[in-house]
Amino acid sequence: MSNPLRDPLALFSRVLRVLIKLNLLFGALIMALLIASLVAEAPVMRALGVRPAEFNARLFFGMRVIMVIGICTVPVVQFVSQRLLMIVATVSTGNPFIVVNAARLRAIAWALLALDLIHFAVGAVGSSVSSAAGPLHLSWGFSMTRCIAVLLLFVLARVFEEGARMREELEGTV
């Protein structure tokens, strides 16, 4: 009899591997954009939809700070993706309720919280450099969904810890 979880897990694993590569690609593209903005400021900013002018120096600086922040998120996303792959591997072997998976879920929750705080940092930078003459339109703010996702991961980490403890107790009594 075939395992019904096997195919979705294999698909999820492949999707995660693609997302890991895309994350690295986007990080490299942001780095290239940052470097290009330093080498050829006027053409790059025009391509990004910002008119080069003296009053836009602050806006250009803010956009570069946001690019640096974007580059800094790449390792955080890699961290989350790698932990998810490790969890998927334990699920595919039939042994997901282990203490290390609880630690992985907790680490993912902290990383998602960090990404949420980074989201606010980007919004703060954008808000501080935006003006009527040089607006920087960013969509940022509080998200109940992101908040619930972080809380859910902390709860799931605790559930996995408890599941691992119960499994160890059961194996000890058999």
Could you give the topology of this structure?
Blueprint: H1 6-39, H2 41-47, H3 57-92, H4 99-129, H5 144-173
Name the features.
174 residues; mainly alpha; elongated
Overall morphology:
elongated
The unreliable regions are: none
The helical percent reads: over 70%
Please describe the biggest sheet, giving its number of strands, its sense, and whether it closes into a barrel: none
How many domain regions? 1
Number of helices: 5
**Distance between the ends:** 27 Å
User: Strand portion, in percent?
Assistant: under 5%
Radius of gyration, rounded? 22 Å
Structural class computed from helices and strand pairing: mainly alpha
On the 0 to 100 scale, the average pLDDT is 88
Number of strands: 0
Order of helices and strands: HHHHH
3D structure, described in words:
The chain has 174 residues and is mostly helical. The chain has one domain. It is built from 5 helices and no strands. The radius of gyration is 22 Å and the shape is elongated.
Question: What would you say about this model in short?
Answer:
79% of the residues lie in helices and 0% in strands.
